[in-house]
Prior knowledge:
CATH superfamily of the largest domain: Alkaline Phosphatase, subunit A
InterPro entries: Alkaline_phosphatase_core_sf, GAG_Ulvan_Degrading_Sulfatases, Sulfatase_CS, Sulfatase_N
Shape: globular
Order of helices and strands: HHEHEHHHEEHEHEHEEEHHEEEHHHEHH
Largest sheet: 9 strands, mixed
Region (Disordered): 462-485
Pfam family, one: Sulfatase
Organism: Echinicola vietnamensis (strain DSM 17526 / LMG 23754 / KMM 6221)
Number of helices: 16
GO molecular function, one term: hydrolase activity
Radius of gyration: 27 Å
CATH architecture of the largest domain: 3-Layer(aba) Sandwich
CATH topology of the largest domain: Alkaline Phosphatase, subunit A
Strand content: 5-15%
CATH class of the largest domain: Alpha Beta
Amino acid sequence: xxxxxxxxxxxxxxxxxxxLFQSASLKRWFMVLLFxxxxxxxxxxxxxxxxxxxxDDLGYLDVSVYGASVVKTPxxxxxxxxxxxxDNAFVxxxxxxxxxxxLLTGLMPAKNGAEVNHAxxxxxxxxxxxxxxxxxxxxxxxxKVAHYGGNEKCGFDFHHDEQVNLYENISxxxxxxxxxxxxxxxxxxxxxxxxxxxxxxxxxxxVDLPPYFIDTEPTREHRARYYTDVSGMDSEMGxxxxxxxxxxxxNTLTLFTSDHGAQWPFGxxxxxxxxxxxxxxxxxxxxxxxxSRTAAMVSWVDIMPTLLEASESAVPEGLDGxxxxxxxxxxxxTFRKEIFTTHTGDGNFxxxxxxxxxxxxxxxxINLAPNAYHTNHSDILRKDGxxxxxxxxxxxxxxxxxxxxxxxxxxIRPAVEFxxxxxDPNEQHNLATNAAYQPRIAKMxxxxxxxxxxxxxxxKLYKQPYYFPxxxxxxxxxxxxxxxx
Length: 485
């Protein structure tokens, strides 16, 4: 086409465009289409990327954000300064598999079917990952997100199950993979799960111990190793979050939490706050006020519904969890009135089921097998880097009545425990037989019973407990029981 013909064609097109826009109705439709197209693009861009960072067996008091004075967690401190810190976040169950199943389904253990450790939800129970994918999200998992071997069941677009070298695995994958659309990335660090590292970046004589521990040299050495793993987790998380900052940009919601307390006496496997209360920090620039803090009580089953609302994904009906987005926005300082938690057991090592209800001040614990020993892997196997310090506790108890009382309290529990948390945050003074509290105890018992019935909780014993006055279980006892099956 020569130059004159090109000019003629342009002139003709210009003439028809001018006549088109002289029609008011056509002009309005054209502008509407432009607006709608632009709005759709803006809305798509506004969907936040999301990072869910999970620690494993981290006690909420073992983080500087929650008052720890010895162990150092500068990355979590920075995250807290940039987001909202929850002072009253609780897991559904203080063992890995039931806790993570509750997170990923929005249902409590009795409803989703993962009541005992090393269990998974029933086959007909959907993971909420599908809701994000239906809304256009690509969903990834690195490390321990579901319980061991469970990432494949959740419907992630990609999962890398190796639990070490998280930063290298993450950066290596995304450096070589083109990712489309908004993403939700789950990262699960196994630390500070046992076995704890042999390194001691902290001096045993300088670590602090909870007031209900027995102060022995092996306990302090194990505590130093545990703190080293806590700081190691925090440090690598800094590398990962820096990488994601560069990759994802500012419209990113970052959530950090832990699946339950640490495997110390009265922590993991127990319904004391040291077992069920967890760190929870959420950052979302321009959406969440930096440096804010809330006393609102939330549960792990609430996390996924909150992420679904943040991403404008569909939230299924019938969940136990509910979104706490209004708390994140600063529109309310309250959420749940009660927190319910359950623990059922872990194979042959841990057969001591219990249930609890907690409000802002009081906690009621029902031990379903009070005529049996409370016991688990830690005190049974007593392995280096896990529970080897138990030998020193037994030795101390022989000569020290106070130490003997701690050991007795650990192994022998009453049927009912009731604590005034405002005056007894360490839950050391059982008020279950105190006459002044009987009306409140009766009310909370009724609430707990009603909740268990609604959950379909059969209070089932999956294994036979270790009844006293028989011998406490040990490695040989466990082997004998395993051989029987």
